[in-house]
Amino acid sequence: MGATWEAVTALRINPRLGGFARDMRKEPTPFEEALWLQLRGSRLAGLKFRRQTVIGSVIVDFFCPAIGLVVEVDGDTHDAAVDSARDTWLGERGFTVLRFSNADVGRNLNGVLEAIVLAAGACRARFTHPPAPSLEREGE
């Protein structure tokens, strides 16, 4: 039986993973930066996203905790088998994962945004009250 969202978030973040996530927030790829400019500050359909977030033992590119939506932007170096295993692990814990290539983001950002909104509409709310505020500064 998979862990619940509460059990996953109640665990302390691995300091090594937290450091990697922090470093990745400081140096996003151009494609992650382009998407983040559209997602930050609840700009897309009022959805609050975080970037480079640790969930269990993985770091996800973008995460909307209110509905459990994970958005990944994949470069040429991604391993499909590893990504599939990560997606399965996240799915078993109730998360919905969307993957887009750098080319998708670079050539069709509006289509990517539409796909995110469509997927978000199919996700159910995970909280009956607003989640606790992030310990990180807003919009980073």
UniProtKB/TrEMBL annotation:
> Where would I find the DUF559 domain in this sequence?
20-117
Highest taxon of the source?
Answer: Bacteria
Which Pfam families does the annotation name?
DUF559
Cell wall biogenesis/degradation recorded as keyword: no
- Do you know which InterPro entries this protein is assigned to? DUF559, Endonuclease_DUF559_bact, Restrct_endonuc-II-like
User: What is a single molecular function from GO for this protein?
Assistant: endonuclease activity
The alphabetized UniProt keywords are: Endonuclease, Hydrolase, Nuclease
Q: What is the name listed in the Swiss-Prot or TrEMBL entry for this protein?
A: Endonuclease domain-containing protein
Q: Which organism is it from?
A: Sphingomonas arantia
The major lineage groups are: Bacteria, Pseudomonadati, Pseudomonadota, Alphaproteobacteria, Sphingomonadales
